[in-house]
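Q: Hi! First time asking for a complex rather than a single chain. Here are the components, and I think there are two in total. Is that enough to go on?
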Amino acid sequence: MPINHDHKTANALEIQGVGRRFGGFWAVKDVSLSVRPGERRAVLGPNGAGKTTLFNVLTGDLAASAGTIRMDGADVTQTPMHKRIKGGLRRTYQHAHLFDGLTVRETLFLAVSSVAGGWQRFMPLKPSDGAIGKAESLAQMSGLCSDLGREVANLSHGQRRQLEIGMALAENPKMLLLDEPAAGLSPSERPRLAELLLSLPKDITIVLIEHDMDIALRTSDSVSVLHNGRLLAEGSPENIMSNEAVHDVYMGGAHGH
Amino acid sequence: MKSALFLLPFALVPFFANDFWLVQIFGRALILGIIALSLTFLAAYLGVVSFAQATMAGVAGYTVAYFGPNTVDVGREMPFFVVLPLAMIMATLSGAIIGLIARRSQGIYAIMITLAIGVAFFYFTRQNYNYFNGWTGFSGIRAPEIAGTSLREPLPFYLLIILVSALCLLFVNGFIKSPLGLTIQAVRDAPKRVLAIGIPTTPVIVSAYAFAGFIAGSGGILNVWYQERISSFSVGLGPIVDILVIAVIGGLKNPIGAFIGALAFVLLDTFAVDFIDRERFNTLIGLVLLAIIMGAPDGLHGLAKSWLSRFKKRPSENQV
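A: Yes, that's all I need. Here is the structure of the assembled complex.
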């Protein structure tokens, strides 16, 4: 992977003119964003605005049809996903795709050893393995320490979301992309999620898609609003809350499920 | 460890069985069980039904035939301690290559592509005379003599078979608890998510197939010693389907199922001729397969497990 660091104060994420086309339809078109290191950025927008597609392009789940993506100053537009992950990028998914046949401990172990190395070993795993210790502290962070031995298929919806975040926190991520982490959580679980997000180390850059305005605005420094695949507005949470255009889009979009 | 204990009854067989039961029934069942185990491994932990296990076993068998003592004028003889590792390497490699070809396919497509590879290998062996001796194949293959013990003798051969079976079960059960084994299961559950935690899936899938090739290869070596011959028919559609039938009858969810299915298959195969015509065997095994699929989708192993759990629950029900 060619890494060309431009200057010391490179943005954590800098995308320019990024687009993704499905046939003749641009799900994301000409989006440019820059996110400072350590910034907490919320991405808002009605259903179908292109938020998740943008995430998919950022992680490499989907290739960008246009534009460039830079992370920490390095151009990663063509870099395969697993290399971007090694570089410190993590994401969670809106619909939790987890390893249903494994336990919580095994899942978090894989999340650790996939980045730290060692997933290729083919001798039986010892409980004293270093990555197991790390997996257990991840479970502690995400509030799953009493469920370490449980099979993922038997977790509740809320616990699956917690596990998603636990996996994303493995091995000191630099940037987290969280795709609706609060989706489907009960009202009592939501404040706990907000706590968890606020408690994350300040040097982690977080980009968050969230429909729960309370969580989105409480946990972020700045907001970008997408609409029909394009960037509609950008600014501080207060600015965005009072923005006319954003109001129109949200009122219109909120009914159109 | 626990699962290898399941083979304990097989270890007791030499105390009361004659040579026919020892080798033709239990020995053959364990050999077929090992080859079916490699299919069960792929099905249970990678989530792929492969039709190429008889092919991987055949690669090991042909290697032993070509480099070992045989009565046809093909091949070159080498000492067994060179041939055996070579055969295992070839089988593992064949598994890896098949995995590389089939890595992107699942479900019906994986079945089709592995079946195509199996059938292609069948025609290749049939038409190639330099290495496979074509239609005739190899005969007069002899198991070696190690430290004064001939492996052609029923008892030593049977003990070797049971040792290899136990080792294969231990390997599978140890492997699935290793980091790579866990990653294989993760690929089964959510391949895209495996990529998203930073692991490329191709080497994972290829190594699962290679491991299956290793297991099938151990069965393939024993099988060629048992048959004392190998030809294109040993890797044809018949054996390919037999292995699948064994794995399904036994149950695809647990490695032990392969051995249970193999024993049931061998008993039917050997004794059904006493009751029905030889040509009717396929009808019989087809009906058994149908009954299993409809009545016990998890095979005989699943059936036994649910009976046992019913048995265990009874005391607690009495308390209520």
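A: The CA atoms of residues 98 and 152 of chain A lie 7 Å apart. Let me know if you'd like any chain examined more closely.
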